[in-house]
Each structure stands twice: as structure tokens, then as C-alpha cells.
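User: Good morning. I'm curious how 2-acetamido-2-deoxy-beta-D-glucopyranose would be positioned relative to this chain. Could you predict the structure with it bound?
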Amino acid sequence: MAKFCSKLRLAAAWSCGGCQLWAILLLQIFVLSFVVGPYLATTDGFNGLWGGANNLPGVGAVGLSPVVDVDALRLRGVNLPAPNELSKLLLACNSLPPRNLDLFPSLRDDRILIVLYVHFRPEYLKLAVSALSVVNGINETLLIVSHDGFYEEMNAVVESIRFCQVKQIFAPWSPHLYTDQFPGTSPGDCKDKDDAETLGCRGNPDQYGNHRSVRIVSLKHHWWWMMNTVWDGLEETRGFNGHAMFIEEDHYLLPNAYRNIQILAELKQKKCPYCIAANAAPVDVRSRGERFNQLVAEKIGNVGYTFNRTVWKRIHTQAERFCKFDDYNWDITMWTMIYPTFGDALYTLRGPRTSAVHFGKCGLHQGYSKSKSSQCRDSAMHLGSIEEADKVPNIDLEWSVRKYPIRGYASGFQGWGGWADKRDQNLCLSFSSMYSTSP
Ligand SMILES: *[C@@H]1O[C@H](CO)[C@@H](O)[C@H](O)[C@H]1NC(C)=O
Ligand SMILES: *[C@@H]1O[C@H](CO)[C@@H](O)[C@H](O)[C@H]1NC(C)=O
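Assistant: Good morning! Here's the predicted structure, ligand included:
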């Protein structure tokens, strides 16, 4: 054990900056494995979490089962980059049980999972979490927070949550965790419009001649890693057949968002055969809805999109198209390459009043960085006061559905680029197979 701890401390020293936090994290892991772990192992319903962990090397020795076994995967031809010490720690963290099990020992069967995926905008996250804390029904479900790598301030915000079960996961191959090797930038890499042949550098330029930028590829990697992990990787969710709602750190849920999305998820099955999802907000993020007495079927938007495992499986069969399309935006990739393969069934159902507000002024479309994030902090977040009608479910089961035409990219659209390096495409493909049980 002492050996294990010193190994972790080495990792902490190596990554320093967040040493204090690492000490806390290590202590938590220690407490969870030795104090909580054995207790959970004897509690009904948690056997699976800890079972079989003891025969695994490394972290397994202290009772944590890594969600991904990189060495075993390599034997099967799935080549994930070797995790560094920090990533190993994160992999171990990902298999910890949810927090707040003492306050919320059980989940409702009709729950909709909430998945909040975050980058590095702590001020935004605080606001998003404060909104979540008063969402009606939040205490019936599991909140999963997926971090793009590790940022101490982001972690601290999530650790303060006491209003529901919450499970944190950390993308262990997030480029910013790797300072001198892929998925970060490695020494011989081409940059910008370098010519690989004359310079002898490494990389494949995109269709516009640009080489990979770690800031830009990070988002699509995180999204795909998160989707695969949430649906197929986690003990808590692998067997879950309901719906999951996805939000980001600059999405403010109104108090009725959860109840409304529960209603919409049901209604889409009954009223909208061409809908594969429900949304908490209009696709146009500036719109708060028409406020008429109808439901709307439209293009799937990015705020509070909600779908089930059936749909995930269909997305997952298109992994190759997702990972090889030369566009660094996950959403544009989905619209261009994945949804069209679903035929006519590519709509989402939503109510005529929004249940979520996109408040971020500082988008992530050009990637993000720690230094830039300060620009986002003081952006005016005028949300206004919450109207009474948005505090209670406000969807009428009798409403008809109005269908809006979907305006997509013209056929032949080749993507915005930024995603042509074979290493990125292969990493993405590895994420698609890291949880499959067959070779
Ligand atoms: C969830 O919150 C509601 C409203 O505050 C409360 O009535 C209910 O008992 C809570 N349920 C659980 C499981 O904590
Ligand atoms: C999942 O959603 C799809 C699309 O709405 C629907 O056809 C299917 O019946 C749903 N499956 C389950 C198990 O709810």
C-alpha cells in the first residue's frame, strides 16, 4: 500500500500546480477504497462495482477496478496511447462509485440520466450547478459530470454538490494532460501549414492544409470519449435503458426542465415517429420558444438533447464516419455524417417554451485554453428572473406537433477541417471499441 501511495504522490508531484488538491484526491481514493469500499462490497446492489478488482495489477491492488484496461485492449488490437501517471489516476477515479449515496441511496426507475460535460469555465459551471440544484426531480436521478481532462477548480465545484447522486468522470486522454506526447503535442509534430515532406515533421494536414491543433481537437475527442463511456463503459449506466439528457457548463436549466424532458421523452414515442430525441431548448439558442400551444419537431439542438440507448447504438455503428470526417466540431459531424444515415427519423421534440437557457458568451468553437478562459468570466449573464410558468411542467399532453424543416449542409459538404491527423482519427476509433467485449 505504501508503495502504491508513493507512486500516486509521484504522479502528483509530476503534475504539480494542483498539489494540494492531489493530496485531497489521494486521500479520497484511500478512504473510498479502504473505508467505503469494503462496506459497499457487502451492500446489495454494489457488488458489481468492486467485484473482481483484486486480481488486476496496479490500481486494482487497492480495490479499484479501472474502467479501461489499456494493456488488455492492445492485445485485441485497440491501441490507446499509454496513459501517463496522471491519466492512470483519472482512470481509477472513473471507477469510484457516485457521491452522495448516503443522502440519495436509490434512484427512480423512470429516471432520465443527466450528463453534464464540461471544459474549463468554472464561473459558468457554478451557475449551471446552482440552476441544477433547484431543478424539480433532480434528486431522483444520477448526475454524471464528464471533465475534459482535469482542472482543479472545476473538480471543486462538482465536489460541492449535495442535491443528488453525482458521478465524476475524467477523460484520461485529454490532450492537455500530455505535455510532450500525443494526444498532446509531441516534439516532431508539424504545425499550422508546415509541409511534412520538406520539414520532415509528423502529421497529416486537413483539407485546408492545416495540421492538428490540440486545443481544437480536444472537444470532439472528449465528446466521443464521454458518449462511449456513459453508454457502454460505466458500471452505473451500462445496463441503463432509459434516456440520458446532455448539457454543458453554459446551460442553465429552468426548474421544470427535468419534468418536461420526462414528458417529452414519452410523447416522442407516441406523437412523433420521426423523432429520435427530445430537447430542453430550441435549436436556435437565442430563442426562448414560440409560446404557442403546440409541440415542435425540429433539428436536434445542442442544449439538453435527450435520447436512449437504441439511438446511441445507431450512432455507434457509424463510428467510422464520425471519426474520419474532417471536421473538428462534434455537432456538425453528427449533422453531416450520422443523422442523415437515420433516414427521415432525425427530428427532436421540444416544448413551445424553453426549459434551458444557453448563457455562454464565450463559445468553444475555436477551442479553449486556460489563459483565454478569463475572457469568459465576466460576460454578462443576464438570465432574467424565472417566470412562474417555468417552475412547473408546462407541456400539454394533447398538443399537436408542428414540424419545422431541417436546414442542413448541402450534400457534398466536406467539413470545416481541423480533423485529418490519422492519430486523432485512430484515437477516436479506439474510443469506439474500448468497451466492446468482443475482439
Ligand atoms: C426530492 O425532493 C423533493 C422536493 O424537495 C422531496 O419532496 C422528495 O422527498 C425528495 N426525494 C428524495 C429521494 O430525496
Ligand atoms: C428509444 O427511442 C427510440 C426513438 O424515439 C424509440 O423508437 C425506441 O422505442 C426507444 N426505446 C426504448 C427502449 O425506449
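Residues 1-21, 30-63, 365-380 have pLDDT under 50 and may be disordered. The first helix runs from residue 2 to 14.
Let me know if you'd like a different ligand tried.
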